[in-house]
């Protein structure tokens, strides 16, 4: 796997991050090393693996019960601007 | 060249659970803004989602009702994008292992039936609601809907006209309502539809550039928006300018009756999906599956067959009854009150339907109590009141909450107020009271009171006094002495 700094810049743009060319080159190398680690997993054969036999591999469910959270004051304490109980933002134009 | 229209739909349906998909906030519609929120659905750091079991049950029921394969192992993925309606900056959805795949719906199109294939159904969380103010440079955010469970149903591009798309949607809605998966209220956004539409030359198999239309909030808008886009694209093909059709997402503006472009072209749809690390894969065990399927309520087609077989009602009428679940439920409730099925079907599909043009029964309920309609049917069938009187009482029951018996009494509509019968009785009374007639003719108007009294006595007080009075006055005028 070879990640280019152009790919880094594209992903950065999607993630709304800003990197210099130098940073992008460094990240490209680091991405590469992470992805090559995943290549190890690809070399394993999982065809006969049944997730059901793996302890803790399967989702646990919650009952459909309502338990309201009451402290909206605290929940939205970091909101920069509110109008009544709405959060207020600069207008988003599509 | 002859062209055909190719339409595929993506339908988002809010599941009828009490709590959200990954937290215990209520899913109630119409709460005050941001009332139904908690650290989980607002994406606070350190919180973890826990899957609501009922969501899986309802999705399995939906998949089964739509003849899908249920994927016994499915999983959640993160769909990453930035928008203020999504506090986590990713939506938990399903990407490569959805809960259901490969289903179909048979849609009745006039005499014929057409099979519309379903590609997949996946689970996801709903996003919040944004309100863009008109007069200020402000948008308001309400996270109540964030985390409400959704299924997204994706169809194959099997639909060939806007009418077919609407017919499919109606059938789908009816199935989902019967299966009690969602209330499917388009006006409240619990059923939402996006449409992909393109044009191609008949006989070819290519799929040309398509346009996605969002924000279709009623069947009427689906029809209008698709007809408009279909016309635009067909004209471009006719003038060989089809290269002007771009793959894009457009938003339907119902007020202006046109579509407007939504997302800028350069922003490619790269959602960088990856497996959701906070949730384990979902395993649907055999007994879970069995339980979910066993508990699916009777679906429209089954109900139709049963009503025809069990009650002998005409197919055309049954189609009307099952077309709206509330109506079919009402019909069977009337029957359970002892009404004759054929008569009940007639009253509901003719008289009630006339009244329902102005009433939304999914909101307000049927305006006549089932036991009242059953009683009315009995009164007419046993000849206690005439059919005409029955219709009068029916209309009155729509307006008031009175029982048919009370109305028969009040309006004097029992059969004995039938004019011809009363005329006979009055004639007989007159022929036995010649003295009274003579008195009347000799200027004693009070004699009429005596004759009326005798007539009332003859009918054991069941006659409508107003009608009796008119009949007697009429007859006395004609008497020559």
Quick synopsis:
Chain A contains three helices and three strands. Helices cover 38% and strands 10% of the residues of chain A. Chain A has a domain at 5-42.
Question: Can you walk through the features of this model?
Answer:
The complex is a heterodimer of chains A (94) and B (481). By secondary structure, chain A is α+β, with helices and mostly antiparallel strands. Chain A has a domain at 5-42. In chain A, 38% of the residues lie in helices and 10% in strands. Chain A has helices at 5-14, 21-42, 72-75, and strands at 61-62, 82-83, 86-90. In chain A, a hairpin with a 2-residue loop joins strand 2 (82-83) and strand 3. Chain B is an alpha+beta fold. Chain B has 3 domains: 3-291, no CATH class; 298-413, no CATH class; 418-478, Arc Repressor Mutant, subunit A (Orthogonal Bundle), CATH 1.10.10.410. Chain B is built from 16 helices and 17 strands. Chain B has helices at 53-65, 162-178, 219-238, 286-294, 300-311, 315-323, 325-336, 341-356, 361-364, 370-381, 387-399, 404-411, 419-431, 434-441, 447-458, 465-478, and strands spanning 3-14, 51-52, 69-70, 73-74, 77-80, 90-93, 100-109, 112-125, 129-132, 138-142, 149-155, 191-201, 211-216, 248-253, 258-261, 274-275, 282-283. In chain B, strand 13 (211-216), helix 3 (219-238) and strand 14 form a beta-alpha-beta unit. In chain B, helix 7 packs across helix 8. The model of chain B has no long low-confidence stretch (mean pLDDT 89). Classes of the chains: A alpha+beta (94), B alpha+beta (481). The interface between A and B is large, with 35 and 51 residues.
List the defining traits of the structure above.
heterodimer; A: 94 residues; alpha+beta; two-stranded antiparallel ribbon; 3 helices; flat; B: 481 residues; Arc Repressor Mutant, subunit A; nine-stranded mixed beta sheet; three-stranded antiparallel beta sheet; 20% strand; elongated; nucleotide-binding (chain B); Gln-tRNA_amidoTrfase_suB_CS (chain B); ATP binding (chain B)
């Amino acid at each position: 796997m070879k990640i280019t700094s152009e790919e880094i810049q594209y992903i950065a743009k999607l993630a709304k991050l800003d990197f210099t060319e130098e940073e992008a080159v460094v990240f490209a190398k680091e991405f590469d090393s992470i992805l090559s680690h995943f290549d190890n997993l690809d070399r394993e054969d999982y065809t006969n693996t049944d997730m059901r036999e793996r302890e803790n591999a399967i989702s646990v469910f919650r009952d459909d019960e309502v338990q309201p959270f009451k402290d909206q004051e605290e929940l939205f304490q970091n909101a920069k601007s509110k109008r009544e109980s709405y959060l207020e933002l600069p207008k988003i134009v599509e | 060249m002859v062209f055909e229209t190719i339409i595929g739909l993506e339908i988002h349906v809010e599941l009828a659970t009490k709590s959200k998909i990954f937290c215990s906030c209520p899913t109630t519609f119409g709460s005050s803004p941001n009332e139904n929120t908690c650290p989980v659905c607002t994406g606070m750091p350190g919180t973890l989602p826990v899957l609501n079991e009922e969501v899986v049950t309802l999705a399995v029921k939906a998949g089964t009702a739509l003849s899908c394969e249920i994927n016994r192992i499915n999983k959640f993925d993160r769909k990453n994008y930035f928008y203020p309606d999504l506090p986590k900056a990713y939506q938990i959805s399903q990407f490569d292992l959805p809960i259901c795949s490969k289903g179909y719906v048979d849609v009745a199109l006039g005499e014929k039936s057409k099979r519309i294939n379903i590609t997949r159904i996946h689970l996801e969380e709903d996003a919040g609601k944004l309100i863009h103010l008109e007069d200020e440079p402000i948008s308001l955010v309400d996270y109540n809907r964030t985390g409400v469970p959704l299924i997204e149903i994706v169809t194959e591009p099997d639909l060939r006209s806007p009418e077919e798309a609407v017919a499919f949607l109606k059938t789908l809605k009816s199935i989902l309502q019967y299966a009690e998966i969602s209330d499917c209220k388009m006006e409240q956004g619990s059923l939402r539809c996006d449409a992909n539409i393109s044009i191609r030359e008949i006989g070819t198999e290519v799929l040309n550039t398509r346009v996605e239309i969002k924000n279709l909030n009623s069947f009427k808008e689906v029809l209008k928006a698709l007809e408009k886009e279909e016309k635009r694209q067909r004209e471009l093909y006719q003038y060989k300018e089809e290269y002007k059709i771009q793959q894009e997402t457009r938003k339907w503006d119902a007020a202006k009756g046109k579509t407007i472009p939504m997302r800028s072209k350069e922003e490619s749809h790269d959602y960088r999906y990856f497996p959701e690390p906070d949730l384990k894969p979902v395993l649907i065990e055999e007994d879970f599956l069995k339980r979910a399927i066993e508990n699916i309520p009777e679906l429209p087609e089954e109900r139709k067959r049963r009503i025809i077989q069990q009650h002998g009602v005409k197919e055309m009428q049954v189609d009307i009854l099952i077309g709206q679940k509330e109506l079919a439920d009402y019909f069977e409730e009337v029957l359970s009150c002892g009404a004759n099925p054929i008569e009940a079907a007639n009253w509901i599909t003719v008289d009630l339907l006339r009244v329902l043009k102005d009433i939304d029964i999914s909101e307000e309920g049927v305006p006549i109590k089932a036991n009242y309609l059953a009683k009315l049917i009995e009164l007419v069938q046993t000849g206690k009141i005439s059919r005409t009187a029955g219709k009068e009482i029916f209309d009155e029951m729509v307006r008031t909450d009175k029982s048919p018996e009370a109305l028969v009494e009040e309006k004097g509509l029992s059969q004995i107020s039938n004019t011809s019968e009363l005329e006979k009785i009055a004639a007989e009374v007159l022929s036995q009271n010649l003295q009274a007639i003579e008195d009347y003719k000799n200027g004693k108007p009070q004699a009429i009171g005596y004759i009326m009294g005798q007539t009332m006595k003859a009918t054991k007080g069941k006659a409508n006094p107003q009608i009796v009075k008119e009949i007697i006055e009429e007859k006395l005028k004609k008497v020559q002495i």
